[in-house]
Amino acid sequence: MLDEALKEEIQTAYRRVLEGLDLTPRYGQRLMIAEIARTLSSIEADESGRRLSNEHVCVLEAGTGTGKTLAYLLSALPVAQARGKRLIVSTATVALQEQVLHQDLPSLKQHSGLHFDFALAKGRGRYLCVAKLDQALDGVEDNPTLSLFEQALESRDGDDFHGLVQEMADAYGNGRWEGDRDSWPVAIDEGSWRRLTTDHRQCTNRRCGHFGACAFFRARRHLDQADIIVTNHDLVLADLSLGGGVVLPSPKDCIYIFDEGHHLPDKALEHFYHRFGINGALRWLRTLKKSLTELNTALGSQPTLARLLAGFPDLIAAIEPRLGEAYSLGHQLAELPNGAGEETRHHRFAMGRAPAPLREMAAALVVPFDELSRNLESMADILRESLDPDKATGLSREQAEPWLPLVALLQGRALEAHALWQAMAADDTQGEPPQARWLTFDQQGGDAELTFSASPVSAAETLARYLWGSCYGAVITSATLTALGRFERLQERAGLANRYRYQCLPSPFDYSKAVLSVPREAVDPGDRDAHERAIVEFVTALGDKEAALVLFSSRAQLRAVEKALPKTHQTRILAQDRLPKRELIDRHRKRVDAGESSVIFGLASFAEGIDLPGDYLTHVVVTRLPFAVPDDPVGATLAEWIESRGGNPFMRISVPDASIKLVQACGRLIRKESDQGRITLLDRRVLTRRYGRALLDSLPPFRREIDGQLQA
Asked: What is the model's pTM?
């Protein structure tokens, strides 16, 4: 139960914020505050603070306008402080992260009366490595420890790179820049940045001569003092994959808030996806082979390193011919000629099961890559210890330090290879969803590549065990968490237990101000030409001062409709990908401000990522129900597995997912309480198919207009 002192603290803070910001209290917001406080304060723990209860997660769907950020900060922060836990606020997009960091938290701190510190957590790869900056300043063109890729970049960058390095050194040394990529005033190309940052394997932490000036650890020290840490889903998942508590605090000491929580299952899948490019691997193996002479000269005086180095030629000789065989086998299995053509092609294995010859080859590659990664890890450990003046390894710092980046880089590559071949050879658990396994063929100019890939089709088990099972408490929230009005799809994808608390909070918006129309022009998209003509006719008939967003399911159809419009109407169109998103939105707003018509043509990303309140958007046109065809290897494997067990993947996956996307698309129209307008569906299947009513009923209570007639 929520004790009276904590309850009073939350209520007082809420009242102060409402008064300080001159806000009107919202019913859904008050419910959200109460539900989060009730869930988190009722968690039972032992004397050490370790969680004992298993009803520590709440899942709250709260539409635009609820005031979610204020609700979860006000309710979760006092509980976290009272329990001695850290609050981790995780978002899926940079835009929301910046809003929380630069608007919501400063405002809360100013007006609530709550005392707290907050910080932003970013991965190590977003920060400058001072050691690498120092090397770049000294000029390391001939450094033998640079990988082949870095050497190639070195030769291309020339004076531009060295000018950038000097600017960064001046700015960082003078305190004008904190050393993170995102705050540098201009975009930094990926190749240049890769040479100036590091990862957890290459970083030597406290043993680094530049540790005191390290940008990452300076930021990390700030995190150690913060009550609230703002981050993103990717970093939370990356930290969990490293065991937790590496960049962020340990999960058992954290209460997580996952805003935009509907993205979490897809983000999790990306973190457990393994891939291995044959030619890319042969290149880094050649890097190791070419470096052996210099490695022996530099490090061979250390007995353990000498023994490990002596074993590399045989290991590489065992791996290289097998990779050549894997390349040929991949082409045979996909029934491709030696060249795969100019386009990227996938070859997916049915039910995720690799054919016997490939499984045998994968099993044969697991062993040498396991040995290679262990040997490189042992080398890296010795090199790191050699940087510590208190450790006697037989190597000086000057001998070890130049070689650690290369050894750590190659160790990471070997570990990735081992994980892929292990996944390719593994037997899937009976009765559980299989892994998806597939081949990808790329022919870019003269460079051909064959990539082997494996991925779970669901992240549910991993999230259930390593996130929900290990954290002290969690809140998952978003405007769209339910599918067809239920939480089952999210539970299935995110591994959320039935015992957790689930609630849909009421919206403050009056949705009767908007009309949802299925006009006579709407046709079945199965007749592509007729559907395209219908879209062209409808867009042509839009009013002279219309502020509209037309959402397409394919880039090809968007381009075809744009081309088929009369010339007089093409000037009104602002098409996605023709302009950067920010410039497109700016032009749209300027046209509306000038009283002109402006019509945005957008794809799926615009169905979720655009905020145009008031007169900037009065009409949303959904050209086609947003069914995703499960033709990607992961989705296709999952659909195949569901079908093999007597299920209907269309009804179990496609319809619920389309429901979420349709709600998101329609949600572009009503962004604040005074908004009104029209939503048009140009897909007649919503009326003619049995799933159509379920899709319509999952939408907010707009007034409905069918074939020009308002419905009662």
From this structure: 0.90
